[in-house]
Amino acid sequence: MAGEERRRGRGGGGAARRAARSAVSFETARYIERKIPNLEILDVEALEVIEANAEIILEEIGVNFVENPKALQRWRDAGADVDGERVRIPRGLARQLCATAPSQFTQMARNPERHVEIGGRNLVLAPVYGPPFVRDLQGGRRYATMADFEKFVKLGYMSKWLHHSGGTVCEPTDVPVNKRHLDMLHAHMTLSDKPFMGSVTEPSRAQDSVEMCEILFGKDFVQENTVMTSLININSPMTFDDVMMGALEVYAQNNQACIISPFIVGGAMAPVSVAGTLTQVMAEVLAGIAYSQLCRQGAPVIMGAFVTSIDMNSGAPTFGTPEASQITYGAGQLARRLGLPFRSAGSFCGSKLPDAQAAYETANSLNMGLLSGVNFMLHACGWLEGGLVASFEKFVMDADQLGALHHMARGVAIDEDSLAMDAIREVGPGGHYLGCDHTQRNFKTAFWKSDLLDYKPFETWDDEGARDTQALASLRVDKMLADYQKPALDPAIEEALAAYVARKKSEAPDSFM
User: Fold this and answer.
1) Pairing between strand 63-65 and 229-234?
2) DSSP code for 431
């Protein structure tokens, strides 16, 4: 776990010392390093069949790269059969290309203590991504604004168990579509010092993201290091559109990481069966990751799998289901066999409120992510209503529960102190351990402790207003935002970023389409 940090003002002398004394202290946990085994539900024979069938899909059925002549030419040059926009990839070619992608990489943050290692036995947690709506206890459900977005970035920065600032934590609909990416990136860069994601909604916006990072980190640094991890969704089934692929091309060519992720609603965008869906997922990620390596050999990538099942009566996606878990566990095994980092899972739920349904489905999804070997978990906190809503209360509820994942991932210590034979001898039959030396030495760190949930006696809880978890979470949101202090940033860099945003906004008329 990273050491305690104090945010200090920039004033000199006595003012600086007074600011340091009054600064709010908070801990930020290091990314998770698992010391527990992954849950592997498929045997080697099953994995080999899925991999072989994925190769058949690529060779015989093929995938579409739409409205992207440059991509089609890259595939021709690599030896694929290109017929119109259909690309058929000879057996083994995609896997051969994927082999040049790194098995693990570091995403740099502007604060070196916040760097994250993506891949291996590691798990990096990032917040919800993409909802057009927000919800809180005071205002209910409403369209998201830039002010909402900035609040989420601040909460993410203050959240102990969250390693990453994320990307489009909510979609600020009060800012023009063609300019909001500038404001969102600026917020991540200035309101937090954790790593963040770039824009993928148009290739030019990906280029803007790269250029803003060059201001923040330095141009040469960006080319030599990975400072963004961005989400590239595949239009399942087996379609790669020009917008997402255009963004991927920009990021790959600039050494920035992409999560190449099928967007699967089982029964609609993939077969209803677990094995069939895994086969399609494997084919899609092989093609997408291979294409990233055609853009730049060695470009960092993450194999993604966003998978949910469907309610066959309503057509609505369902979350926390056994089938989605089975697909995620299997996809984790396939990613490890490819030697690539794996993205999946999150605080998924279909509930309209942060209620019991949300808690059950989210708990199932978070634990699935830990046990399936996920390396980058997008949507780790704040997800509500099938991803349509980012909830402030659920954000802090989920962020609190991420601490349980950290503790579970540590595994069970087996050493002289943890075996506690001295305590067992000291207490003996019929005693209790509350006052023994071993308990006194370890009680502060022995158990994970929620910073949110209520464990008080009934009488105390009732006297304090009988508050449910949503009410407690609302109070915690207010406290965290009140305690927030902006992390220091070189004034010249901050000025240059603001000037870049202002210039780019002035170069085009507003568009809300």
Assistant:
1) unpaired
2) -
pLDDT of residue 21: 42
Whole-angstrom distance, CA of residue 342 vs CA of residue 377: 9
Listed in sequence order, the residues at least 6 apart from 273 whose beta carbon sits closer than 8 Å to its beta carbon are none
Which tokens belong to 394?
């659920």
Gyration radius of the chain over CA positions: 24
Q: From CA 108, how far away is CA 117, in angstroms rounded?
A: 9
Cα 98 to Cα 105: distance, rounded to the nearest angstrom: 15
User: Do 208 and 200 meet the contact criterion of CB atoms below 8 Å apart?
Assistant: no
Provide the token pair at 496: 């240059």
List, for the chain, all residue ranges whose pLDDT scores fall below the cut of 50.
Answer: 1-23
Residue in 212, 131, 203, 216 with CA at minimum distance from that of residue 166: 131
Candidates 31, 1, 101, 34; CA nearest to 372 is 34
CA distance 58 to 50: 13
Q: Rounded distance, CA 307 to CA 273, Å? A: 12
* Residue 121 burial (C-beta neighbours within 10 Å; 0-12, 13-18, 19+): middle
Question: 177 with 513: CB under 8 angstroms?
Answer: yes
Give pLDDT, residue 24. Answer: 52
